[in-house]
User: Fold this.
Amino acid sequence: MLFSSTIFLFLFLPIVLLVYHLLPRVFRNGWLLVASLFFYAWGEPKFVLLMLTSILINYLFALAVHTYRTRIGVKWIMFSMIAVNLGLLGWFKYSGFFVTSLNETFQTSLFVPEVVLPIGISFFTFQAMSYVIDVYRQAGKVQKNPLDLALYIALFPQLIAGPIVRYETVADEINHRQETLPEFAQGVRRFIIGLSKKLILANGCGQVADTIFNMKDLSMGLAWIGIIAYALQIYFDFSGYSDMAIGLGLMFGFHFLENFNYPYISKSVSEFWRRWHISLGSWFRDYVYIPLGGNRVSPWKQYRNLGIVWMLTGLWHGASWTFVAWGVYYGIWIMLEKAFLGKLLARVPVFATVWTLVLVLVGWVFFRAETFPEAITYIQAMFVPDVLWDDRASYQLVQNGVILTLACFAATPIPKRIGERFVESAGKVGQTVQYGYAMVLLFLATSALVASTFNPFIYFRF
Amino acid sequence: MAQPIERKPTEVGQPSSSFERTMMWLTTISFFVILMTIGVGTILREDRGSSQLENRALAQSVEPTVQGITSGDDMVKMENYFTDQLLLRGTFVEMQAGLSKNVLRQPFRNGIYTAKDGYLIEPSQAAQPVVPDAFQQFTQDVGRPVFFALAPSKTVIAERDGIIPSYVASNAEQRYETMQAGFTKAGITSIPLDALRLSDYFKTDHHWNVDGAYQAYGEIIRTVGKIEPTLKKVEVDPESKRSSEYPYFGSLARKTTLAYASTGDMIEYYDANQFKGIDVCYDKACGQPLIDEQFIKEEGDYADRYEVFMRGNHGILSMTSKTKGPKLLVLKDSFANPVLPFLAKSANLEVVDIRYVTKDFDASEFAKQKNVDAIVFLHNANIAGLMKTYQQKL
Assistant:
């Protein structure tokens, strides 16, 4: 089930919230778990068993780690845990990609397994691993009750699209949390903002991006409009989903960490990744980069570690060499910034912002393109075009100029700052406007959702 | 390695005033009430079979099966059903169109351009059409004069008039000319309809209005009459022209919704007494109404008032009277519907809508069997999609 679906918004969510808050506290976790499993089963009924298996395995691993913490064999338990989790992820997400790559490289004709990708597997696998690792590090307590662990991993607000909630973040809240009116109201506002980001801005920009990426012989103007639209789409899509998850978490008394912090105003690629998909960056930092030695090893090893982390980051996003290239691309820029570029950029902040934005946009081409030739052709159109501007670019600008401008503005912290200052300074008027704003957004987002299913049957054109 | 800044959502303190607390309650309750009202309202409301706005059948409730649930197919069907039946669905669709027009300033909606005078135009960039060999074969086989009245589509006229913005690619006129040349090459006599103007078409629909249809009637009589001298134009009384009480929002308005089609059209037609003596037969029944005003009086913004003419499309229809004119076979689509009442005053008609006849229908055999004097194809330029059907049935 998706947050941006009518059945979630008008049936699942109100029923789950209502029953949750009517139930005595002792039953709330149980209800939330049932609701979360139903949420997952709605779209992927058969994969519920896979998720439950993952939960059970990691529950047992954590118990074993907890019990045998002082024994030498605990490292083997950890090794097995990582192997099993990555094995599951590898089979479902990467087996086809791996065999295809082998066949292409060595001209073999090995059987390519056609494995359906279970939705959210990257997220719940990483969360499950985070749990066992945190228990091992004693950053979070072991769960004796498997249902509580199941709730942590399957909790529907963050189950299928993140943020990756680390166990230590919510370990205490699984059994000891308090739902309050201010946080619930804040959660409602946050959810509505996320829903609006997704349905109005992301989908609006997505139509532009999809149209342009499906065209051939792009002019320079069209290529730039397309990639800007895609950058806005992916930001509002993902950050909107994170907003909805954080908002829903607040409604149930959970406090998830922020996942985005206006990444497009970054002054370096390193800063971009401190502001983009924060939960993933911190996961790789704490569970891969630091265990590899982090910054406390020789410079050569630091660069090696960065290379490994960014290649894995790319691969995490999708089973394709274009994703790997995308990750490596960022790894290279971060290494250069670490070596010397960072210091240079710090001296010219305005240039640094534009520079970073251009690098990120180029990166999105690899992310969006399905093949390398497609990506290269697109980048050529951006920088060494045959035509600077054409009618198709004019059309996109006239038709979608306002929404692209609005989205660009909304991707900066300015609207939020203006809003917060207004609410603070305008007292009751500010609070009333804040309420009205949220409700108007809810109706607009709903109208965008319904309109996306609008399907007039105009037989004929005769 | 970049160091992500991990932070919790902005801390929410206790309300500083009773007013702030009230607003928090209001936010919470409004959220619940809005979602619950739409959700429960959708479930409790009686299911609708079809949507006037979308002109299609709506998804109906699903009886789940084990296989359907395990595959996830039933969930998809349930979502479609719930979304189709959603309370205030039409209102939300209109609201979104209003946002697109008034806030996002989008001149196009679902591919339709709104011209300054309220005309809704659908630019198109499609491949050049190919007239199949079947037309030439049909002309030779049928042994009777064959004519083609190919009306320019609204888009063709909009292109000629320069209404479509220069930055929008649209090749309707080019395709129209290709189509006409193809029919001429097939040995079919063209009935010229190039004199039609934009005002001969509805603003919100792709069809022509009764004035455009009457003009086409005159051209058909003039061209076919050269070979069939008994075919004479019969005037209608201008005073008998009627107009719909409610505005008419046609097929293009359904795609844009009312936000882009604020003015609508007035559908006009001639009083049924102008067509007395014409017997209309279809679906094995004669005496069918030629003009049915129930469609004019039907309530609803998107009522299909165009069905005032013979109640819409029928596979095979005959229109006979005591006219001394010839017997014509008209092969047509809905574009022909407002022309047929006029034409039936001048000739006996066998009318075939190729989209609604049986698979084994053979137009050539039908023409011979009905012993018609001539054949008239009556379409507008957007018939590329029909060519395959004609290939099979001519």
Observations:
- DSSP finds 13 helices and 15 strands in chain B.
